[in-house]
Amino acid sequence: MPDPPGQVDAGVAPKHQAYLFAHMLRDAYGKMVYSVSTDGLKWELLNGGVPVLEDYRGHPDICQGHDGRYYLVGNRNDKSLQIHFWVSEDLMEWTPFSTYTPDLNSVPGYPDALPRVGAPKLYFDQASSRYLLTWHTPHRMGSTEIPEPYWASQRTLSTTSRDLITFEQPPRRLLRWESATIDTLVRRVGDRYFAIIKDERYPTTDWPTGKTIRICSSDSLTGPYTDPGPPISPNFREAPTLISSPNGQAWYLYFEQYPGVSYGLTTAAELDGPWVPVFGDTHHKDWDKYRLPEGSRHGCMLPISMSQHRALRQVFPVDRDEPN
Question: Residue 42 and which of 73, 225, 304, 319 are 20 to 30 A apart at CA?
């Protein structure tokens, strides 16, 4: 079988030298562990799966910010309204930075929001020098025949900040259309912004796109965003994360088959698609074109330098007994 597109030819310097995957494990939900890769396909678990930041709780999401430092976001659980940030110079030592508590009682056009904050995610937009913080919050639906009404009521909320200390108030809905969404992340490519979402409606013959990963776009960081495109994953997938390939000519979009069953990977030359599935993470090494540590769950992937890769492996050694 051919290798996925985006790898570097022999003798050619890669655009992206290595990658970090900050994520949870099935048996350590809400804690943060590290895995690394040099090709964006084969991932090694670091530190024997021991959390790298004991105080952290959440769905790990990291971005490099306005000052070149790395910022990490999380929250204790969905019932906790506080969103916490940490900062790091080197991805190894993390320091508490700030805390934000959104006013969910004043969201425009969302009067029945419940006091819940799920899976906050952070993106720094260099074009506008602003951070975009997103999360999902449900609302009171009243009587309904929709399956899973709690999850069907989820909407993506957002706010912006220039320093992660002062935030736009009140938060707003990021997506204008009426559909359940969670795990929304935003990236800018060229002059366009892409929101990668999980369609959180339960799949039925009336709503076949439920529990899939979909993409919409906008010419502005805060929207309005287009209606979502067709699914780029099977049903019952979530927690998308996106990286550019080593040669910078393809996109790798990972998503979890929950709860911690395996990861899927799809690839495209452009975020508009078409997207092509990649075979892997079956733990049949002769067949797999990519693989992640067993039991990997929600997290984020980001490019790092080879010197960062070496330093992380030194501080958090690879577990040589790890089955991957």
Answer: 73
What pLDDT is attached to residue 79?
93
Residue with tokens 């892409």: 194
User: What global pTM score does this model have?
Assistant: 0.95
CA nearest to 45, candidates 74, 17, 21: 21
Which residues, 6+ apart, have CB-to-CB distance to 67 below 8 Å? none
Instruction: Write out pLDDT tens, residues 55-95.
Output: 999 999 999 999 999 999 999 999 999 999 999 999 999 99
Q: What is the mean pLDDT of residues 119-143?
A: 97
212 exposure class (CB count in 10 Å sphere: 0-12, 13-18, 19+): buried
> Cβ neighbours of residue 111 under 8 Å, at least 6 residues apart?
none
Instruction: Kindly report the CATH number that applies to the domain delimited by 18-315.
Output: 2.115.10
- Contact criterion met (CB below 8 Å) for 69 and 87: yes
Domain segments of the chain as ranges: 18-315
pLDDT for the residue 319: 65
Place of tokens 């990668």: 196
